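A brief tutorial aside. Many learners find it easier to grasp structure tokens once they have seen a single protein encoded end to end. The record that follows does exactly this for XRE family transcriptional regulator. Read the sequence first, then the structure, and try to relate runs of similar tokens to stretches of the chain.
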Amino acid sequence: MPTLQAEQLRAIAAALIRLRGDTLGSVGMATGIRPANLSVWLRGKEQVISVKRVATLMYHLGLEGSSLRADILHQWRDSGALDDLGLVLNALVGSEAVVLYQDGQPGLTKTRFLQIGGVLVRVELTAGVAAAQDLADFIQPHRVIALAEPLAAVPVELVSATREALLTLAEQAANDVGDDELLDSLLFQLGNSSWPTASTNTSSPVGWQELEHALRAALHDGFEPSAIAQWISAARDSQK
């Protein structure tokens, strides 16, 4: 992803502050930046904050370089207009594949999860005067995983626990529709490293268990989802 320009950084920082529910005071306490200087910087006066301070600010708000951090669970709230959400996703995600987890729970506020490679984002959407646009239509994710269990109950203390909870819920949902759905759900949970080979003979229970165990090991070690998908595709082709 290209380096973000100063004007982009200010717009992204302002959007993230709103999405996170932060205040200038809380950000100042966390970063050591005076709220008055932060306010002036957000309005376009660059020299009031050093480059090092800007890097500290963006890291606190969830960025490392020009990318969303994968070592934390991002927790955002949007009142329904989706302007801030759209700005951040357009600037930081671009054409990357996004997986949307959603449930059908009633209530004014909806909880959703976005998975972007190894990044997880928890989004709370509350419709304003104008009803919130459907998030799936708004972001056009690569895949939507609909879950029966309430996503508001998914643990958020550790990002690893959040990943595991989403994986478990996706497995439960997939059991109703078969192995292919489960395979898709598992693939989108994976992160970034090496993983063991396994049988792709999912027509038998033993073969499927071997594949599931391999994918769970990959979840633990991490691996790029697109690479795993290519491996599965090649393995299936070789068995035809």
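Self-check: Residues 70-154 form one domain. If you spotted this yourself, you are ready for the next section.
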